[in-house]
């Protein structure tokens, strides 16, 4: 079974080939929204970059000749884990590093979109106790995003900003791939700010208290934070 996407621009810019192997283990929340749940199984996908239209075609197959290919083993209800593996940069087509990273992100978003949405749905009320804080968080993330992209554009010869550009290209791909999956399956799509929210979870644990007003203007808000987030792989 395959789904095709016709031309429309989805893409980033260009410089040289990067080999990318991306195995990821995703631990996802058990409290997933029921209407997004998929039966356990392995889901395959391959992404093809179309230079003429600067767009992506995705098929639900594992084609090792594709510009990016991989699978998602949706075994969370069986083992408690989902396993995602993506490979990009190995096709005969010479692609810019940014595009390779964009395609890797695209497949990640496409294969895991339902779980991304469920994870956001579960995590949001744990982090955002006061809805008014979300506006401040969103403004901060938007400013940070603009500042980051400005530096990437203006400092192309700097290795740090060049590699930051690759990370941002992957994040853009993640959003667009999830959008494509939502469109195909008639799901509610995630916004870019929601994807940024998930990407910034570690930072939000510090950012949210700093944006939360206190009655006396003191730093007491930092005294205790009722939720932690571990970046280590613990099972």
Automatic annotation (TrEMBL):
Keywords: Glycoprotein, Hydrolase, Lipid degradation, Lipid metabolism, Signal. Its EC number is 3.1.1.-. GO terms for biological process: phospholipid catabolic process. Pfam families: Phospholip_B. It comes from the Eukaryota. InterPro entries: PLipase_B-like, PLipase_B-like_dom1, PLipase_B-like_dom2. One of its GO terms (molecular function) is phospholipase activity. Residues 1-33 form the signal peptide. GO terms for cellular component: extracellular region. Gene3D superfamilies: Phospholipase B-like, domain 1, Phospholipase B-like, domain 2. The keyword Glycoprotein applies. The keyword DNA damage does not apply. Putative phospholipase. Belongs to the phospholipase B-like family. This is Phospholipase B-like. It comes from Myodes glareolus (Bank vole).
